[in-house]
Amino acid sequence: MVHMERLLHLFAAAPAAESITKEPIVPFLILLLVILFVPLLFERFLKVPGLVGLLAAGVVLGPQGLRVLERGAPPMDLLPEIGLVYLMFVAGLEIDMEQFRQTRNRSLTFGSFTFLVPLIMGTAVGLIFFPGKWNTSILIGSLFASHTLLAYPIVSRLGVVKNEAVTVTIGATIFTDIGALLVLAICVAIHQGDFSATRLATLIGSLVIYSVVVLFGFDRAGKEFFKRSGDDQGNQFLFVLLAVFLAAVGAQLIGVEKIVGAFLAGLAVNDAVGEGPVKEKVLFVGSVLFIPIFFVSLGLLIDIPAFIASINSITLTLAIVTGLIVSKFLAAYFAKLIYRYKWNEMLTMWSLSVPQVGATLAATLVGYEAGLLTKEVLNSVIVLLLVTATLGPLVTSRVAPTLIDASQELEPEPVSPYWSTGETATHSFGVLVPVYNPKTEQYLIEMAALLARQAQGRILPLAIAKATAHMDAPQLEAAFKRGDTLLENATNLSRELGVEAEPLLRIDDAIAQGISRAAKEQHASLIVMGWGQRTGLRARLFGNVIDSVLWAAHCPVAVSRLLKSPKEFRQILVPVENITPQAVSVLRFVSLLAAANGAHIVLLHICDRNTTPGRVAWIRSQLSLLVDKLALPDHPEIRIKPHPNVTQAILEVAKDCDLVVIRSTRRRTSAGGLTIADTTTQLIGAIACSLIMLGEPQPASFSARSEE
């Protein structure tokens, strides 16, 4: 009956267009269009962060503009709340607990500085503009206290994450965010009235018990669940979602804001989730849907005319922005005095702790909706976000490269051959080649044969037959016949190339797991795979074979798109950003391939056009020293190319090369939930020659922590 009435309503006398616009599905459709196109336009054409575009879209579509979206009306009554919770959960999930454990004492010290100094400064600013309102002023101070690691991808890409100053700053995030959220919870509780010392003590006691239950209970439950669920990523994903929203509801039950529970839940399941595909899916769902919707809803609150017209708000904005920047600088300077950090380390700590996105925005919105913060403060925090989100990464990109120290980058001992580590210490060099597509099989076997012959090893052609409920099913028999044909072709080809082949035909529930398990069983030293065709939304949501193998494999994985026979490779291009252990591993692989093929190696480093000649000379000397340690038969050519666009520079040099070898790097999201551009992804779609993406096995610590 209800559905019939709805249909009659749709076909009533009112025009169809007017009826449709009242449906909740229409605002949701508009949100999807905004999320899809607006960040892309702002990042590519205006060269500003995509979240600025989302805020602008909220202003244009909200009460101050077209009035298409309205807070409190479907779907803006629920999805922004989910986005707010998800934002704080991601902030906790992105903290590297392993790095935090290494320097937790110094992280606690710097965390105290970068929490208390901004808290005092922000409280002073609040009292100047809101005399006598201590509760509001302390809440403004707590907004200064937290920080977002927006520039983490920069220090990660440069290979300086293990620098103590960087690690300490990352660890301090835990203390600043938890402290800021606790201050928020207490301020909001006091503002709601009927507050006494007894109630304050009760709230603090409840918070302590609640935090212990979430941090330790969820952590243990998560590890146990992930251990028992095996490779069932769907249930693991649902467990993570259940944990975050259960923690959020639990926080509300004890009388504190749900974002406190969401952040603690992120910390709690951090170890269990690790850096696996489940975490990527969790971040993906948040970054493409819920968190962008939160930013759009935040834009609905921005009153541009009132902000421009109010001179007082402009003064307040200047005070908030200046106070934040100065207080964060003082906190980093105090840490420098105590631990005798260098100036470049201190400036890196400051630039990493300046950006205010995740916890600051979430706490501001909660304080505004509770009536503690005015619209002027909200507008000022939006400006603070834009300024610090630009200033922090900019300073980091200039200062962090100076942290690279020659003594930390290169080991004094000679570098061992690529194939003489790990599994191959007791087993011969083996190259596992999954065969599926007859069109690409020949080139893959040829490359595997070149590598195996150079290392005096063997190749392991592998065909996977997807398991069925009954072992006599016709589909399984057909898969067996097809696998036998592919393996026979691979064996004949390897015999022609003079390399021993050990064909494998395996039944497994999943292709990716079958590949990684067979590689481990056969003690393979390397997996050579063809390039998968499935990309886009479906692959990001459900993953593909390449992603799963890169995550699960115990050995390096060479994902190859070969446009001609590997025997014809004469010039191999290897882009090298910094001399990290991962870059050394790529060079070992390339040296083996080049030695087998008699190819010439070109090492390419792209630097900024403003890089000083002294810095260029230092980079060249480091690369030369690395080449000498690798003891390659053919001394590689070292090119240092100043260029504003890394991708474009690589494409220009690649025109004269037969093969480009790049390192696989995982896409990472900022705590703002928006994906950060990945040079590897851009190269894959634009490069015209053959391409190999070399993925290294995940650190053993992640799987070990998950199975404790």
From TrEMBL:
SUPFAM superfamilies, sorted: Adenine nucleotide alpha hydrolases-like
Cellular-component GO terms for this entry: membrane
Transmembrane segments: 26-42, 49-66, 78-95, 107-130, 136-155, 167-191, 197-216, 237-255, 282-302, 314-335, 347-368, 377-395
Domain Cation/H+ exchanger transmembrane: from-to ranges: 33-397
Keyword Transmembrane helix: yes
Membership in a protein family: Belongs to the monovalent cation:proton antiporter 2 (CPA2) transporter (TC 2.A.37) family.
Protein name: Sodium:proton antiporter
Organismal lineage: Bacteria, Bacillati, Cyanobacteriota, Cyanophyceae, Chroococcidiopsidales
